[in-house]
Amino acid sequence: MSSEMDKYLEKALENKDVIRVRNVLANSIREDPADVRGIIDFNKRKIEQKAKSAGLELWQEHDGRTFKEKSEWNEEYLSLLMAQLMSSNFSKKRFNHILEVGREVYKDELNNEVKKRKKKKSKTRKPITTNARNETDIKKLIIIAIGVGAIILIIRVFL
């Protein structure tokens, strides 16, 4: 969450405004329905903890509405779920289902982000390679170090 969003959340908690606290959590899904950045679960736990500490009931009991089968998931269904979450039933079950639907509906975007991260990691990690020249240079350095050590020892012993 941005520092601006943190301030908004803190003020909502201070004022015991559960609607605004819920808004912060819902916005995290609106901004990133596939959870490409992988932080929604972290933010959810953080907000749950803060709401509990403030004495707020973040979640409502699920209203019993059934969810569509995976084959019917699309952007329109995701929008419907978000509308239900914000207007009539802010249940943890619905929130988690929205996250699951978002990851499915936007799976190509999610997969592309995962590929970018892997590619970025592979660029930052350079394998350690040795070749004959490196080994020869190391051997030379060792011989020089031994020679210098021997000279220092001889000078100390005879002086």
How would you describe this protein?
The protein is mainly alpha-helical and 159 residues long. The chain folds into 2 domains: 3-120, no CATH class; 132-158. The protein is built from 7 helices and no strands. Helix 2 (18-31) runs antiparallel to helix 3. It is elongated.
In short:
With 159 residues, this protein is an all-alpha fold. It contains seven helices and no strands.
SSE blueprint:
Layout: H1 3-14, H2 18-31, H3 40-53, H4 75-87, H5 92-105, H6 107-124, H7 132-158
Helix pairs in contact: 1-2, 2-3, 4-5
The biggest beta sheet is recorded as: none
User: Given the helix and strand composition, which structural class is it?
Assistant: mainly alpha
Give me the count of strands. 0
CA gyration radius, whole angstroms = 29 Å
Number of domains: 2
Helical element count?
Answer: 7
Helix content class? over 70%
Whole-Å distance between the termini?
A: 70 Å
Globally, the shape reads: elongated
- β content, as a range? under 5%
Low-pLDDT regions: none
Order of helices and strands: HHHHHHH
- What is the overall pLDDT average? 85
